[in-house]
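Researcher: Checking consistency across runs. Here is DUF475 domain-containing protein again:
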Amino acid sequence: MLLKTFGWSFAITAIGLVAAAFYGGWTAFGIVAILAVLEISLSFDNAVVNAGILKKMSAFWQKIFLTVGVLIAVFGMRLVFPVAIVAISAKIGPIDAVDLALNDKDKYQQLVTDAHPSIAAFGGMFLLMIFLDFIFEDRDIQWLRWIERPLAKLGKVDMLSVCIALIVLLITSFTFAVHAHQHGGGHADKAQTVLISGIAGLVTYMVVGGLSGFFEDRLEEEEERTHEEEEEAERTGKKKPAVVLAGQAAFFMFLYLEVLDASFSFDGVIGAFAITNDIVLMALGLGIGAMYVRSLTVYLVRQGTLDDYVYLEHGAHYAIGALAVILLVTIQYQINEVITGLVGVVLIGWSFWSSVRRNKALAAAEGKGTTSDEKAEVSSGV
């Protein structure tokens, strides 16, 4: 099972490390290995959230996620994206941007750094919306009840998450402009860019997430009518296929996953520049890490880990909220990538530990013949 799920990741790791050694010797080999570890540590929460979505999809779409999705993640976000950002921000052609990445790495790194505020605003707002929609939803199982219960009540207010996200964006862009003005920097004009990029991230979330949710709801309605349709089909000899609907739902969920992965990859791509400004090594290292994140996502789905450890998804969403805040803060201040990675690891580790405690408490309650109401109290949260 382990080899079947992680087989491609192991193979890509071997190929990537060998390619790095041929490209730049042992130094390049070490840099690629470090970048791969960096990507995995920063994106573990991504795998947990992805698993929550992927488990609703068929085996076919899970394979698409591991094949076509990987091509988008590795070549699109880890190779094409940094070049495209430079081309857009520097107003040069894509070929010139590639030439710059290969032959003038210092200038290339500077251009990517200059584009960071707009990248962070887009990704930060997208991730913030994911966190807010999760935390404002009333759910049966709650991890930190003292936080989640009152927030779930507030979540009954329509469009509350959008309002909060827009307020956060306005505060971020305003403080960025004030800070740039006070320090005499040349970034005051970028405050508007930050605002527009943040709105673009918000709109992207609402469009992609809305379409995904719409088709997912329709798919669930279709599944509820499946038994009745099958009975009718037996009587009439006709059957209404639900393949198109399922395909639409899966496609938009797949699209949502890709945008989610893109948002998660922003901090990894930007953080990689702290280690190297060589785009080839960056693509190899982050690509290897992306493969493991994808394989881990499928592994969590097939092992049913999220069903066994019910607070993992909560911990991952709290990590998303922390990452969103960190991205927005990095528009103005520099934050070490180690802190970014540790925040996610600590939150997920805490949620895993809480899940283990919950499972032990439920097992003890079963052994003592506890009533169903008491069991529900134990399982609902801490």
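Researcher: Does this match what you'd expect to see?
Model: One thing to look at in this run: Residues 1-366 form one domain.
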